[in-house]
Amino acid sequence: MRYRLLGRTGLRVSELFLGAMTYREASPEVRRIFDRYADAGGNVVDTASMYGESENVVGELLQGRRDRFVLATKYTPTRDRTDLNAAGNHRKNLVLSLEQSLRRLRTDYIDLFWVHVWDRHTPVEETMRALDDVVRSGKVLYAGISDAPAWVVSRANTLAEWRGWTPFAGLQVPYSLLWRDVERELLPMARAYGMSVAAWGVLARGVLSGRYARPGAAASRVSPESISERDRAAVRVVTEVAGELGVTPSQVALAWAVARGVHPIIGASTEEQLTDNLGASDVRLPEEAVRRLEAAAEFELGFPGDFIAQTDASQDLYGDALPRLVGR
């Protein structure tokens, strides 16, 4: 397992994060998954307040080894459907959600506290100030944001920079070879601010694992009949590349995301699946393979990305001396 720094901090985080969304009990299989991930060098466990019993299970699994892990959880969704103030990104829900998560996780601090989704009803400056307060209290070490527009995250981090508050060190988004929308605004924004990016859905609900390409494949998270021809074509290329490299399709899909500078969140349901996913850490995709993979799943950057890329090398726009500009 390799490691990277979390955003512009000194915190070391493993390339692959372990997603605990589906944990309902600390069953023998869940314990084996957790231990296998730890033995491989993985150190980030990602959960959320809205994931049912997940926080309680993670808290139990961490007993006796809490400080060796980077524990990440999220807040925003409701704690009580009958109370309007029991949801959102305002200070009251932030504080009460954090206290609830600390109890469930059996810890006195959260390493990475994610805003789960943008709450358009709460000014972002209130959220950032409240996050800074819980960081200063020692109950949270770092902050991140999930599922939000690039302009919101950019405004939030600019406010933090100007006012001396804790900025977002991480961004969490859906991302896969089949779903590359975040390349338009969110990934460039994260790079500009030096943010780490964690990605869910990297295997596209199992489609990129190739499981639905087998004859007679049964429906699971996806109905085989619902998979588009575009996605089927991409899966065929993923499978071809996997065969050429002697690895599995899942490992190719995960390695592609890692090569894009992203931390895949792996949510394996069995130890066997996890072992296969962890193997992506050792996969290096040749440039030619990356080109084939990306060409197989049509994706248009759209405006303004495509327009700017076309005009960036325009001498009509920047003058005849443009070719002498180094590093453009």
TrEMBL record:
Residues 16-297 form the NADP-dependent oxidoreductase domain. The keyword Oxidoreductase applies. It holds the Pfam family Aldo_ket_red. PANTHER family: NAD(P)-LINKED OXIDOREDUCTASE SUPERFAMILY PROTEIN, NADH-SPECIFIC METHYLGLYOXAL REDUCTASE-RELATED. One of its GO terms (molecular function) is oxidoreductase activity. SUPFAM superfamilies: NAD(P)-linked oxidoreductase (SSF51430). This is Aryl-alcohol dehydrogenase-like predicted oxidoreductase. InterPro entries: AKR (IPR020471), AKR_Detox_Biosynth (IPR050523), NAD(P)_OxRdtase_dom_sf (IPR036812), NADP_OxRdtase_dom (IPR023210). The keyword Transcription does not apply. One of its GO terms (cellular component) is cytosol. Keywords: Oxidoreductase.
